[in-house]
Amino acid sequence: MTESEVRPYDAVIVGARAAGSALAIHLARAGLKVVALDRASFPSDILSTHVIYPNTIARLDHMGVLDAVMAHEPPPLYTSWHHEGRMFVAPHTPVEGRDWAICVRRITLDGILVEGARKAGAEVIEGMTVTGLVGAGTEDDPVRGVTALGENGPVTFAAPIVIGADGVNSTVARLVGAARKRVMPTETMLYFAYWTGVKTRNTQDFFFEPPWVCAHFPADDGHHVITMNGPLTARAEIRDWEDYYLNRIRSIPALRARLEGATKVSKVMGSPRLEGYYRDHTGPGWALVGDAAHFKHPAGAQGIGDAFHAAEVLAGMIADGSWRAAYPAWREADSREFYAFCKHLAEPPGDDSMRQVMDAYIRDPRLARAIVDVWARTVKPWTDVIPHVPGMAAVTGASIDDVLAPYEGERLPLAASA
Ligand SMILES: Cc1cc2nc3c(=O)[nH]c(=O)nc-3n(C[C@H](O)[C@H](O)[C@H](O)COP(=O)(O)OP(=O)(O)OC[C@H]3O[C@@H](n4cnc5c(N)ncnc54)[C@H](O)[C@@H]3O)c2cc1C
């Protein structure tokens, strides 16, 4: 490759994980000449836990990669909640015949997606860092490609559309000036480690120990994820994260019993910076997808599924030419309710409210299934769950508009003056 080389495509994607590879698969299937560029070389890990639900498993199937994922034997999981010695287990309402979730490490999943994109006909170039855009991203000077640096030097990839699938710190978003909007601060942080040799069942288990929630997700290739999610205010008292994490998870008798004879095979990882946001999704010659466009607290476990869903939708709109206006409108309609629910999920739980919801879910298995189906996006919380659980609206907020008003209030003057 030389400095003068310009390589032409129908679409250039920056980032090749959940959003980027999924988009590459759908665009290649639609007949576009597409390249996805990633500075990483796969297999490659990224900070993320990784439970995905029946709706997202169906999308893996549609992308032609589910068999490769299941070859790593992630156990099918029902969802179980535990609080004060009581528990319930619930399956999901089946989506395409599957009523379970799976947990697949990103080091496994993302490499399979990259290979899936190549099989679909996309080019994926690893070890290629995008450093600039061709075009300013204005109506007069739309984005027409990217400049990038690979191991053999700089290259220009030209295309009528550049899509940033490059995560929370998106280079494309920065270069086009797409700032975070409707930022939803979080009160909780999430930390986790990988384990092997954990005694297991076919459940993902959430242990509610207000204000903490610890969870056990059996994952692929015999690995297990054990998480602790708790108040940001606790950070000040934590001197040694490894010690704190081990004491926290071992304080839960059921978890301690499962960990007898198990081995922790990673350091403790996680982040206190989990605030939600939106960015403008499109502009002249560019679009954003995945975390680059929209992020929610990972207690919602939706980032991977949403990245696949948005990639599928955006690909169809790029193919029919409607993407510039139709894609942001779709996102608004699709995401607003779950964004509001994430406000609740990102707050530390309390014992009183946990007693109320556990009463309701233990009494009515249909309601228990409905709450776990919120994560599969087959149930709407403010229609199908909250009105049926005594006291829940006082904790979640009575309506989507009530919850989002403080954040969308920031957005409205901007939209009006744009
Ligand atoms: C602690 C934590 C737990 C989570 N748990 C879950 C969960 O249980 N379930 C779930 O669905 N989601 C979960 N998520 C969210 C999920 O990880 C993200 O939503 C998902 O990774 C988004 O995928 P993406 O492809 O948009 O971005 P990313 O996975 O961030 O990929 C972006 C890619 O872009 C590349 N890139 C960036 N800049 C450049 C550049 N300039 N040039 C070239 N390449 C570039 C990067 O190398 C990277 O490979 C969690 C997130 C966190 C932080």
From TrEMBL:
FAD-binding domain ranges (all copies): 10-317
Q: Which residues cross the membrane?
A: none
Top-level taxonomic group: Bacteria
Q: Which Gene3D superfamilies match?
A: FAD/NAD(P)-binding domain (3.50.50.60)
Q: A Pfam family in this protein? A: FAD_binding_3
One MF term in GO for this entry? FAD binding
The entry's protein name is: FAD-binding domain-containing protein
Taxonomic lineage of the native organism: Bacteria, Pseudomonadati, Pseudomonadota, Alphaproteobacteria, Rhodospirillales
